[in-house]
Amino acid sequence: MSTGELLNVEPVELKFPFELKKQISCSLQLSNKTENHVAFKVKTTNPKKYCVRPNTGVVLPRSTCDVIVTMQAQKEAPPDMQCRDKFLLQSVVATPGIAAKDITPDMFSKAPGRVVEECKLRVLYLPPPQPPSPVLEEPDEGVSPKVSFNSRNLNGPEVTRQNVDSDDKSSEARALISKLTDEKNAAIQQSNKIRQEIELLSRGVNKSQGGGVSIAVVIAIALIGLLLGYLLKNN
Q1: In this model, does residue 151 exceed pLDDT 50?
Q2: I need a labelling partner for 21 at 20 to 30 A (CA). Which of 44, 104, 128, 140 fits?
Q3: Residues 6 or more apart in contact with residue 182 via CB below 8 angstroms
Q4: What are residue 28's DSSP bridge partners?
Q5: What is the pTM of this model?
Q6: E-assigned strand segments in 33-139
Q7: How far apart are the C-alpha atoms of 33 and 93, rounded to whole Å?
Q8: Across residues 102-108, what is the average pLDDT?
Q9: Which stretches within the chain are classed as H helix?
Q10: Helices then strands, each counted (H, E), the chain
Q11: Which range, of 62-71, 92-101, 156-165, 212-221, averages the lowest pLDDT?
Q12: From CA 28, how far away is CA 9, in angstroms rounded?
């Protein structure tokens, strides 16, 4: 804080968190410590770089006024983040009831019998604010921290290939089982059909020969047995 006879100025250093291609603002507070109206004016060594609102004004007795200083967006950072820009705040006792539009440059010219108070302000560049670091939660005592893995990140191509091979083998097994089941059912049906024909043949022979068994029937039974053995062996 700068303490003068007319105004208290806070702060006396204009601090800008410097970032490229971004407008940055900071504020000044002017406090009138007298019973008079005090007119002020803010000047800078680099007017194209900074915008001051208001750059002139009147602080009423025992009151305050805020001044906003905005630095225009910069395309490159200065060497070593050092800034040589400066500001000058001038203040003078004004007539009661004066308005900001009535302030003229002549009011701040040094003349006999006129007291012009001056306060010099420095400009400082600060590094931009850093984002807060993440806070790691400590695991409870006796409980080991859980580690989660994404299976898609671990041997992704190999896992996919294994799944495809497993699906192919399952499809082949189901097709083979279905084929064997169909063949077994067909063999059973054929066997039942042959058995029925044998029974019909046996009945016909028994009726014709009075209960004796002919050689033809024996041969037929033997052939049926061989056929059934062959089918069951293949299944």
Answers
A1: no
A2: 44
A3: none
A4: 67
A5: 0.55
A6: 37-44, 50-53, 56-59, 64-71, 86-94, 117-126
A7: 12
A8: 94
A9: 156-209, 215-234
A10: 2, 10
A11: 156-165
A12: 7
| 156-209 and 215-234 helices, crossing angle to 10° | 170
Which of 28, 34, 16, 50 lies closest to 119 in space, CA to CA? 28
For 102, 105, 155, the CA distances from 68, given in Å and listed in that order, are: 21, 21, 59
Report residue 39's pLDDT band, with 50, 70 and 90 as the boundaries.
Answer: very high
What type of residue sits at position 46? N
Q: CA-to-CA distance for 216 and 199, rounded, in angstroms?
A: 13
Question: If you ran DSSP here, which 8-state letter would residue 176 be given?
Answer: H
Give the range with max mean pLDDT: 55-59, 190-194, 204-208, 219-223.
Answer: 55-59
Which two structure tokens, joined as six digits, stand for 35? Answer: 């019973």
Residue pLDDT, tens place only, 164-206: 566 667 777 788 888 888 878 877 877 777 777 777 776 765 5
Q: How far is it, in rounded angstroms, from Cα 51 to Cα 56?
A: 12
Residue pair 227/212 in contact (Cβ under 8 Å)? The answer is no
Convert the pLDDT of each residue in 109-145 to its tens digit: 988 888 999 999 999 999 887 777 776 666 666 555 5
Contact between 94 and 39 (Cβ < 8 Å): yes
Cis link prior to 145 (omega < 30° from 0)? Answer: no
Residue type, 19: E
Structure tokens at 208: 């014709």
Q: What is the helix, strand, coil percentage profile of the chain, to 5?
A: 35, 30, 35
Do residues 65 and 39 touch, judged by C-beta distance below 8 A?
Answer: no
**Residue matched to tokens 């089941």:** 181
